[in-house]
Amino acid sequence: MRSIPLPGPGDEPAERREPTITRGQPPEAPPAIRTLLKELGLRPHKGFGQNFLINEHILTRIIEAGDVGPDDVVLEIGPGLGHLTHHLAARAARVVAIEIDRGLVQALRKTFQRTPSVEIVEQDALKVEPASLVGDHPYKVIANLPYYITSAALRHFLEAERRPVLLVVMVQREVAYRILAPPGDLNLLAISVRVYGKPRLIARVPASAFYPRPKVDSIVLRIDVLDHPAIDVPPDKFFKVGSAGFAMPRKQIHNALAQRIWMPAGSAQEVLRAAGIDPSRRAQTLSIPEWNTLTREMEQRGLV
Ligand code: SAM
Questions:
Q1: What is the CATH architecture assignment of 235-300?
Q2: What ligand 1 atom has the least distance to the C-alpha of 210?
Q3: Predicted pLDDT of residue 55
């Protein structure tokens, strides 16, 4: 097995220096994947972010990171050719796998026709209401996410009426680093994740672990969902204020707010001061409690 060098200690901040995963992938897709796609008459669909995970060790690592056991109901987003689904089905009580690509759905239904614990749902995962699939049962989201929906998928499930107990997701490396950024450097996605959960890095995964090979490396993240969100204002108002603040991240926060949310002249500075925030700061320097206080102040003034 070929070993792929990963960035060494010191290349990244301490909170990112987490376990690395065993590498060792042939540069080409293993014949099995190519044969399977050929047999099915399918080609990887770039538009659906189809990069199939072909490293068994990483598949196992994802299952272990999710502590998947016999009581678990798992929602898998984008089962693809069903490799991760097989691993999940071997451990979980039930797997509901949501796939958007009709060709893959047909193939998956054949593959899992004798596995009653696996249900293949043909849907856009972003349009699925989790409770309609899992009912009242607690559930976990486990997925090698298509990159183009990473942020939307995380927000969709974290902000759902019935949130998962945890998520284990493969995401692009840069996106993972944004989510894991230290306080003082949080973007809107990092805030959205941390309002609802506690993210941690499980493993770094090289591009060679996928077929076709993407242009970027990936990271497996585990997000433990909090019992209660880390805010006590209505989430829609919180994210309205956050979105306004981050719409112009280079501007001072008072300018960004005043441009995006209607308010009388001078109000932005005033409300920021009332929230204990220097109006000349930039959005990324605010903590979640500060956004929370700011939202409360704006709500009290009828601005959101
Ligand atoms: N789970 C497989 C694996 O690990 O090899 C495939 C992962 S591949 C990165 C992403 C999968 O998500 C593809 O099968 C793709 O068709 C599917 N997909 C893309 N957009 C989707 C959406 N909006 N809802 C559900 N599935 C989607």
A1: Orthogonal Bundle (1.10)
A2: 5
A3: 92
C-beta of residue 270 within 8 angstroms of C-beta of residue 277: no
Tell me if 56 CB under 6 Å of ligand 1.
no
Give the position, in ligand 1's atom list, of the atom nearest the Cα of 54: 5
The domain limits of the chain are 14-225, 235-300
User: Could you give the dihedral angle defined by the CA atoms of residues 87, 88, 93 and 96, in that order, rounded to the nearest 10 degrees?
Assistant: -130
Homologous superfamily assigned to 14-225? Vaccinia Virus protein VP39 (3.40.50.150)
Q: Which residues pair with 94 in a beta bridge?
A: 73
Same-fold call for 14-225 versus 235-300: no
Cβ-contact 30, 16 below 8 angstroms: no
Which tokens hold the place of 105?
């759905």
Name, in order, each residue with C-beta under 8 angstroms of 287's C-beta and a sequence gap of 6 or more: 183, 184, 186
C-beta of residue 120 within 8 angstroms of C-beta of residue 97: yes
Residues lower than pLDDT 50 in the chain: 1-29
The pLDDT tens digits for 225-243 are 999 999 999 999 999 999 9
d(CA 222, CA 161): 20
Distance 81 CA to ligand 1 centre (A): 9
- Give the span between the Cα atoms of 237 and 223, in whole angstroms: 24
Prediction pTM value:
0.89
